[in-house]
Amino acid sequence: MKVFEKIRDGILDVVFPARCVGCGEEGYYICRRCEGFMGESALICPLCQQSSLTGERHENCGSLYGLEGLASMWEYEGVVKGLLHTIKYNGVVHAAAEMVWRAYIDMADDIMRFSAFLSYLFSKNTCITYVPMFKKKERKRGFNQAAVFAREIGKIAGKDVVSLLEKIGDTKPQVDLTKEERLQNVRGTFRFNAQYSKPNSEKIPNILIPKNLVLVDDVWTTGATIKECCKVLKKAGVQNVWGFTVARTP
Question: Structural domain of residue 180, as residue ranges?
């Protein structure tokens, strides 16, 4: 599968070379000029969604099944929204590598703000997982964009990417739902992948349930989906979960 993906990406690069989603300049999906329009997303506490200097959960926002923190890179608008749509709906999945590298460079340039997340990501006991898609929809699209981003992050951090969750129910698109409807829409639609709770798993030998996880998705709006996934992971025995999204709705 990976060989096929490399061949496909190589053909796409020749037939459809990367062009900036902002101005059309050839070379990168977001050119040097247009990267100035990538709005930086303020870091927030994932529970109360108020400002947090490092994205960590506020001490007074305790939750048994809540996220420890949230790192979102850019505001979901303009060229960022355009590139995410290009990846998600046009199937240009190799553009995800460019976005993740930009994210990593931006985090390194703003090390104080992202210190908590980077320290957690690169710690010894951290693995990476992602928000799953309903299998029928994933087969139709051909990929899961959250998994694509997770794999690119794993390459940079040198971390295992594990499929710990399954989506067992189809849901309405979240985009047109209210906050309350979003919460109801995803409730009970995810479950823990049972193979990772069995000893001597073939996929990850000698690992049962990871202690620390980074949970990846493309966009954070109300956080309903990631919060539901986090609850399932923690009920299965995961101790700590940080969320990472490429973008956040302002």
Answer: 43-248
At residue 139's C-alpha, the angle toward residues 134 and 145, to 5°, is 70
The answer to the question of residue 22 being in a domain is: no
Instruction: Report, in angstroms and rounded to the nearest whole number, the Rg of the chain calculated over CA atoms.
Output: 18
Per-residue model confidence as pLDDT tens digits over 93-117: 989 999 999 999 999 999 999 999 9
* Cross-strand partners of 165: 192
Question: Which long-range contacts link 194-199 to residues 24+ away (Cβ below 8 Å)?
Answer: 196/162, 196/164, 197/236, 197/237
d(CA 60, CA 70): 16
The predicted model scores a pTM of 0.87
Cβ neighbours of 8 (radius 10 Å): 13
d(CA 248, CA 243): 12
Q: 143 φ, ψ to 5°?
A: -170, 165
Q: Is 250 exposed, middle or buried (0-12, 13-18, 19+ CB in 10 A)?
A: exposed
> Is 156 contained in some domain?
yes
What pLDDT score was predicted for residue 9?
52
The count of structural domains within the chain is 1
Q: Is residue 152 a part of any domain in this protein?
A: yes
Is 217 part of a structural domain of the chain? yes
